[in-house]
Design brief:
nine-stranded mixed sheet, 14 strands, 42% helix, 23% strand, Adenosine kinase, PfkB_dom, transferase, kinase activity
Amino acid sequence: MGKLKVYGIGNILIDIVSHADDQDLENLGLDKGIMKLVEGEERDRIVEFISSNDSTYCCGGSAPNTIITLAQLGINTALSGKIGRDHFGERYEKQLAQHGVTSFLTSDDGNTGSSIILVSPDSERTMNTSLENNQNYCVNDIQEESIREADYLYFTGYMWDTDSQKEALFKAISIAEEAGTQIVFDAADPFAIKRNAGEFCRLIEEHFDIVLANAEEARLMFGNDDLSECINRLADLCKIAVVKNGAEGSVVKSGNEYYDIPVYKVDAIDTTGAGDIYAGGFLYGICSGLGLEESGHIASKLAAGIVGQMGAQFTMGRLAEIKKSF
């Protein structure tokens, strides 16, 4: 496949979509239409429930969605993360290989992270996320030589959770800087930004080359409601700043370069993963040697495409259709 372009680190979540009526949700003690973190016995009850259902399984997680999009577009990618020695982990690795992503997933005792989505007859989605082994990701789980080989190291704010995850990321950042591998950070999680705004600003200024954030995350980062000012401040801290603002489009700024990128209108069906796919599109442009404006347009087109369907990954046929517009 040639030289490794993007080495991603992320939370590994297998997305499981199953069906449940209101009585099922009540029996499981779940509030309809709500996303919640589940663990222990509660997780086990839900897993047992879906085991007798006709469910669909696919690779999920924020950074994995981005890495898979890049691989589908022909970019040589690898993904590092932690799974359990269970059938969810086996399914994940198998599908990752089918997407063309090099797997650097490690495993140990415990469960693979999951997001179990229970769809009601009225199409309401009740999401139950369990981080599990992701929280145990540590320094020993990174592949130093692959980070050195890659053009880009990519990760998101979702990984800024446990001390072992942070320690691993600091090690990866250090390796990347020493090797000249550019560091790409997608804020992705407003809660992580809110908790660690000062630390992230310092990291962006000292270490990160490309930073993506949505409007809420940018405002939280700088404690400022003026989005234009937040964009300028972010661009002052890194080489390339990308800020997404929903229906208003997005902005790409680097030094004196400033581009307003429009939204490509579609009938929205499912916004899950739109930001992840945008990041994949933008990095595809950068990896392909395209300019910032063109990369932004590709990102916006792909984000629109994913919003117009269910799920956070394209079929190859659908992706080929969208790619014709690049």
